[in-house]
Amino acid sequence: MRVDKWLWQARFFKSRSLSAACVSGGHMRINGNHVTKPAANVGVGDVLTFTQADRVRVIKIAALGIRRGPATEAQTLYEDLTPKDDTEKHVPPIARIEGNSRPTKRDRRKLDLDRRGALE
């Protein structure tokens, strides 16, 4: 089965074009090998490594899907091997003055620094 189609059926991406863009962008590995073609074949037992949002996902394929069904059905298609990071930093929201929803210039700089630190 094509890797972009499997990612879409397993509900990792909302559309098949988004999953194809992830693969063709060079953000995908199958069994440790870089893949740049969305038509790359995958089978049961293959390990996929890709980025989703700000996380790196490691997935082992347990079954090939027939259709894009509900989320409960999609969760049976894979085994999540993503390591649980206990040291994940949670960035608390910046306290703002009541009635003012926009951050000040100083708050904005602080937000950018906090977000940059959370990604590293």
UniProtKB/TrEMBL annotation:
* UniProt KW keywords: RNA-binding
Region annotation Disordered: residue ranges? Answer: 78-120
Is Ribonucleoprotein one of the keywords UniProt gives this record?
no
SMART domains from the UniProt entry? S4 (SM00363)
Query: What GO molecular function terms would the record report?
Result: RNA binding
Please list the coiled coil stretches.
none
Compositional bias of type Basic and acidic residues: which residue ranges?
Answer: 81-91, 109-120
Q: Which PROSITE patterns does the annotation name?
A: S4
Which residues span the membrane? none
InterPro entries cross-referenced by the UniProt entry: S4_RNA-bd, S4_RNA-bd_sf
| Protein name, per record | RNA-binding S4 domain-containing protein
Give the originating organism: Pseudooceanicola spongiae
